[in-house]
Write a structure and sequence with these properties.
By secondary structure, the chain is of the alpha/beta class. Strands 3, 5, 6, 7, 8, 9 and 10 form a seven-stranded mixed beta sheet that branches. It has a three-stranded parallel beta sheet with strand order 1-2-4. The longest helix is centred in the first third of the chain and has 17 residues. The protein is globular, with a radius of gyration of 17 Å.
């Protein structure tokens, strides 16, 4: 399986705090049959002020660390970007670490606040689309506006935004409302991928394998493979930073 949303880079956000934590999360993922991990630390202005330099530096340190520990895994990096007006400046300055490409467009992992969907979000989405950037909305099933008004996500679905569902949501770890909406997006065909959004072993581990088995049981092998393997692979294979971990990679 291929995990396109994770917080394994040490010391950058609320994920792994040190290289040892990063290594533990990676080993946990390998045990869950994950072969590729995309590191997506937060870029959240005023909270997690990461940038291309800090992310690349942490990524390179992690690659060297896991290589020294004899661990083999395909790694690449991007970022989970909190929606804000500053995104326009980052795009114009070419300072967005994209996930890769999908259907010819650059893919941005875009996060809404957990509590609501900001007014005017559609205008920013339209601007990104005109720049040939396709947003992948992170964990929409965990948004409280979506809990109250499921139709709140429809303007973004109609704009062909991609949707990333969290594996743990499918298991009920984020509560029944998130679980309900996560399964609903898969049933409707609106979900694009399932990813772990792992942060730590205690409360936010990988859990991709358990979620994959449930999706396969309910919707069949083709749907499960599309969400966990085939579509994520199309994206990560176009991420240029994957080559930085080439020495650590399994053969395809």
């Amino acid at each position: 399986m291929i995990d396109l949303h994770s917080h394994i880079l040490p010391g950058l956000d609320d994920g792994a705090s040190c290289l040892e934590d990063s290594l533990s999360l990676i080993r946990n993922s390998i045990n869950d049959d994950v072969t590729h991990i995309l590191a997506t630390p937060h870029i959240h202005f005023g909270t997690f002020d990461n940038d291309m330099v800090s992310i690349k530096t942490a990524f390179n340190s992690l690659c060297e660390y896991i290589d020294n520990h004899g661990v083999s895994i395909n790694l690449a990096y991007a970022a989970e970007i909190r929606i804000s007006p500053e995104i326009i400046q980052l795009v114009e300055q070419k300072q967005i670490p994209f996930m890769g490409k999908y259907e010819g467009a650059d893919i941005m992992l875009l996060e809404f606040p957990h509590s609501h969907i900001l007014p005017g979000s559609e205008k920013l989405i339209d601007w990104l689309i005109k720049k040939n950037i396709k947003p992948m909305i992170a964990h929409p099933e965990r948004n409280r506006d979506v809990w109250k008004y499921p139709e709140a996500m429809q303007p973004f679905i109609k704009r062909n935004c991609l949707l990333q569902i969290t594996a743990s949501s499918l298991l009920g770890d984020f509560g029944e409302r998130s679980k309900k909406h996560a399964w609903s997006y898969i049933e409707s065909g609106d979900a694009t991928i399932v990813a772990s959004d792992m942060h730590n072993l205690k409360r936010r581990p990988n859990k991709m394998k358990e979620a994959y088995n449930l999706v396969q049981k309910r919707f069949g092998l083709e749907v499960a493979d599309s969400l966990f393997i085939n579509t994520p692979q199309k994206i990560i294979e176009t991420n240029p930073t994957l080559q930085l971990a080439k020495a650590l990679a399994y053969a395809y």
